[in-house]
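Q: Hi! First time doing this. I have a protein sequence and I read that you can turn it into a structure. Is that right? Here it is:
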Amino acid sequence: MKGLLIKDFKLIKMHRNYFAMIIAIAFVISLLTEDTTFMLGFISFITSMFTISTISYDEFDNGNAFLFTLPIDRKKYAAEKYVFGMLLGGCSLFLAIILAIILNLIEKSDTISNILISGGMLLPFILLLLSILIPFQLKFGSEKGRIVISAVFSIVFLISFVLGKSIGMLGINIAEVINRISLLGAGGLFILIFVISMIVVLFSMKVSISVMNKKEF
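A: Yes, that's right. Below is the predicted 3D structure, encoded as structure tokens:
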């Protein structure tokens, strides 16, 4: 797995100018809007998406056929994408938090505790994003994968909309539910969301391993 991680980080290194541009855009927008937390989501989510790009690079010009002649198996390959995505997302989020704190020292528009809480709450959602994207990318490839992923997000949005309307019709008080959840506090809420996201990640990884075992190169 170490070799696969080195390969993917070297692929990402080729796009260092693009990463610098993302950071610069996020910093300028946050500076103009005086919203230090904007860059947290912008940098971490955009950077995490590059995990999907490494899968496309591996598939390019039938590269997987050569890759699996090396001493790696399909299970390790699938698992490595999740480890790489977590490292990439975690490191980019840490960098974004540092930049947000620096910007906060300039503008005094937020508190450091709020920045840290916002950053902590974003981490589980990065994991959930990777859990959705990686299996579809492995299954359908770069071209079909984009279409399928767009369709999945559209269906999720539609289900969320219908569910929201149904809850209203059933007379369920959303505000009361949110208030009860808020009783957990920031720490308890983070632990709950993180545990749920890790369960989803493990399930997603199992699906990805199954997809890789069935693929032919």
